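USER: Please consider what follows.
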Amino acid sequence: MPRESLLKKAKRHLSSNKIVEVKNLQDEIKKLRNENEDLRKENKDLHEEMDNLIRNFGLIHLDENMEELYLFALISRREFEETCLLNTVLFYFRKDTEKFMKEFNQIPIDSVNNWLKEKVDIVNEYQKKILKFLGDSRLLLEISRLCDENQRLNQDLEIVRRFGENTIANQNVQIRNLQNQVEIYSAELSERACGYFWLFGVSCVCRLQQNFV
């Protein structure tokens, strides 16, 4: 076969290989894009599930009246923020959420789904216990007692505060009186000192005159 024909055949073969290679690369890119899109969707679903779980975990929905919720906040002794939405008050427990996020950051990615489902069950059980806890009549009596005690303590603190203010005011008056007395005594001492110096000077002059005589 002539050399020119061999070159043409080789070029056609190379072109054919490139076309096949490019097509394979395009298919691979499309496959990777689909996988990436699936991962993005899965990641988005995980984020939504995480957000829902955090809200359910950190915010306890209690359909009770404001007074009972306020009393419960007193007995719980925990930091909280409350937001009123009609008759619902949301309690946000910071320590629980911090612990929750710390644990979440430590688990492997492959275990996220099972871990989230497990936490959802725990949160639901936790909410049931809180609601049952609030429905106990003995608890309401204890809360009422603690509320009365807290009110008495506030009254005692107010009495102590007023007593302290009155004491400070009296002490300020006494200090001003003492300062006035000190100023008076200082003036008297200055006058006496001047008199003593004058008498001392006169006596010295008299003695000098006697000596000269």
Notes: The chain has a mean pLDDT of 61. The helical segments are 3-58, 66-76, 94-106, 112-134, 137-212. Residues 136-212 form one domain. The two ends are 164 Å apart (CA to CA).
